[in-house]
Design a protein that fits this description.
The protein is mainly beta. About 10% of the residues lie in helices and about 45% in strands. It is built from 3 helices and 13 strands. A 6-stranded mixed β-barrel has the order 1-3-2-6-5-4. Strand 5 and strand 6 form a beta hairpin. The chain is elongated, with a radius of gyration of 22 Å. The termini are far apart. The mean pLDDT is about 85.
């Protein structure tokens, strides 16, 4: 389960490039909150607070704004020409009862027997795992134990032990990792 993150926002009255530039200089970041079928809400969030959320790789965020409180995802972030500072952010509301299709990192754990005893090399093919999950059960990552992996034995998506509530959207036969001997020609 991912850590809970929160940020406060205030209503943005004036729109436009000049106004946005002045707001950014004062430490505020222009933002938009939207959901399909609803009118977008123009907001301002603290630039430093938002930078901290990005550094911590926040996924699901509690957004406190004048129209209420919502659980949101960061849909898109626009950066300046040097990719150093955020200049605008788009949030999207999340329905807590609908499955989301997202990608999470796939991490290999353990030292395979095929490497330590049989002289093989571990090849890691799938680094990002595509899953469907409810918003409040999003894992930070998925681990694959490869400690018992012998030489020329495949580890596939169907062999993974997934957290509760997580459904795989990739081909179950997809190769995650294999220990094999590399030959030099």
């Amino acid at each position: 389960m991912a850590e809970q993150f929160s940020i406060k926002a205030e209503k943005r009255e004036a729109l436009g490039t000049r106004v946005s530039r002045r707001l950014r200089k004062s430490g505020k970041l222009p933002a938009v909150l939207a959901r399909k079928g609803e009118e977008p809400l123009h907001l301002l969030v603290g630039g430093k607070e938002f930078s901290q959320l990005v550094k911590k790789h926040a996924r699901l965020i509690n957004l406190d704004h004048p129209a209420g409180k919502d659980k949101v995802f960061i849909k898109e972030v626009q950066y300046d020409h040097l990719d150093e500072h955020a200049i605008h952010v788009d949030f999207t509301k999340v329905a807590m009862d609908q499955l989301l299709s997202i990608e999470v990192p796939l991490i290999l754990k353990g030292k395979p027997i095929g490497v330590t005893e049989e002289g093989g090399v571990l090849d890691h093919y799938v680094k990002v795992h595509k899953i469907q999950v409810l918003p409040d059960a999003i894992p930070d990552h998925i681990e694959a134990d490869v400690a018992n992996l012998k030489k020329d034995v495949k580890s596939q998506i169907k062999d993974l032990v997934l957290p509760a509530g997580v459904k795989v959207t990739q081909d179950p036969e997809l190769l995650v990792a294999i220990v094999q001997e590399h030959k030099v020609e």
